[in-house]
Amino acid sequence: MDGAIAADLAQDGADWKVGVDIGGTFIDFCALEVNSGRVASLKVLTTPEDPGAELMTGLALLAEREGFNPARMTRFVHGTTVGINTIIQRKGAPLALFTNAGFEDVIELARLRMPDMYSLFCTRPEPLISRDMVFGIPVRMRADGSESQAPDMDAVERAVATAKATGAQGIIVSFLHSWRNGEQEASVKAAIARLAPELFVFSSAEVWPVIREYERSSTAILNGYVHPRVSGYLTALEERLKGSGVPARPMLTKSNGGLMNAAEGKHACVNMLLSGTASGVIGASWLARQAGEDKILTLDIGGTSADFALIIGGEPQFGTGELIGEFPLHIPSVSVSSIGVGGGSIASVDAQGVLRVGPESAGSTPGPACYGRGGERATVTDAMVVCGWLGHTEMAYGQLKIDVGLAHRAVGDLASRLGRTVEQTAQAILDIAVSEMFVEVEKLASRAGVDLRDFTLMPFGGGGPMLGAFLARELGMTRLMAPRRPGVVSALGGLVADLRGDFIRTIFAPLSDASLPGIHSAFEALAREGRDWLAAQGHDAAAELSLSCDMRYVGQSYEIEVVLSPEWLMDGDAAAIAQAFHLTHERLYDFHDPDGEIELVNARLAAVGAGPALSFPEIDEKDAPAIPARRLPVYTGLSVETVDLHDRQALVPGSVFHGPAVVVQEDTTFAIPIGTQARVDRHLNLLLTFGE
Question: What region holds the Hydantoinase/oxoprolinase N-terminal domain (predicted)?
Fold first, then answer.
């Protein structure tokens, strides 16, 4: 679309809402013009050397191609991997930790668990703060919140001087029992600010005031570790948007699937570490509800990883303890399982002559060999090209032209070492990638206690449709639903997400009639905090407050989260709360103890402000032949077969065709195996059903 046409399309009354998600290889854009219902999408290669520059490139391309007018953008939601990449690459800020004297080993001891108890070669990750940068301060708070020993400010002053001299950029303050009373942490934080105003300081109680010192400390450390890079990135983002004439207040996707404003993101950095993966699940949940799908397994394959999540009843599942690189995240987040297998995952032959795939990725620079950007090592994408499933049209909205010869050369290097043909080697790469995903999905299903044969697979991301059908067949699933624009589902998630803030207060009380008034008071305080947070985000409409409590039988080490009804607290109905706990325990562990004493550990509240009510056009289905654009050779695993190639834009609701086939579109390519029926529904989803 040329500039003149774009200018004509940019109406003064336009209302653009834009979602953006930055991945390891591409930045995705999903823009909706609300008045016309027109959806524009785009993918742009990332610029790791200058994060955020690709955002301006994408907005300029949207204006050029789609008539997008930055001055008419009323909603801008952004997901980024800056935080999580900082942790994975260990490029965060040098930190010091101030903790209680005698507890200097808190982050090294952690929970005394090995990441993989069944591996003889398993090692624990190096802490983000080295032992010599942990300073014990003589200070003590009792478990009831009363002060046993005031902070030794002379020790604080000496520790600050040493931390500065050894290069610390920030300090984390985490003392025992600050979940009960954070005054000691606050006073030490204020002292550090006076002594060294050039250092940033976070206290554990302000980041996540929860019982258990390791979980509270590690969460605060993750927040501080990424703070300088995230804050600098968001400041540059705001300046770039302002310079482009964008009036919308930038919002960020959070690990919990909700949103917050960019100003909050600069200090509450830990809340956005899983923003990209969570956005994808939120977008998939919205699409599932639109299509009336009740149970979905999502498959989000990007350039570096494959992410999986369960959607049940049209809603994503939430949890705590998701891994950020090698470290657990103890704040609520959308439950996502990840594995280091993506389109850019590099295939190699180890010293024993065994073919392996990932976790090393070619990323966007240099990228897979077939991109022609300097990559020379074979990747999953190159294997798809060699087999013939990929490379028949331009990719990523015309930004990439596939070089088949370079893909053959890269895979050929491995083939010569393995003594196989190039096609056999490429198929082996794909088989290994699918098998590694299979193992991870089976773990997810086992933990959740679900039968995946009852679920529909939804593949998205640039690589999801390439491998999704093969994985679904291996899992014994019978249905697959691919949205119209699978490459930008994570960006869509930002468009449809709600504001969501999570708040917690440790109460640590037995469940009894006598304790309910105190528990009720804790929830009332959380409700005020939640409403104030929504108001600070600019939300002035009704708020939805969801209550839950971490509970356990007396003597258990860990808790389960139980959803509570506000009426139970208002009416003082301890029996109803107990029954809810018993039922939840039964569902999770297949048993409960009706006579067991129950403890309430943490009160939780989620404050939700509904996002815009968006909808995409629906089109009635009709009998329409699916006419292939042409036929092409594809190596299907045993032999080369001639298959149909379909253009996604030519497929209309009601179109039906059968595999093997290839479907090409702007943001991805579908590989549809033999024995598969494909149909387009009224939402423009591509539905696949698999034969026996």
Answer: 17-193
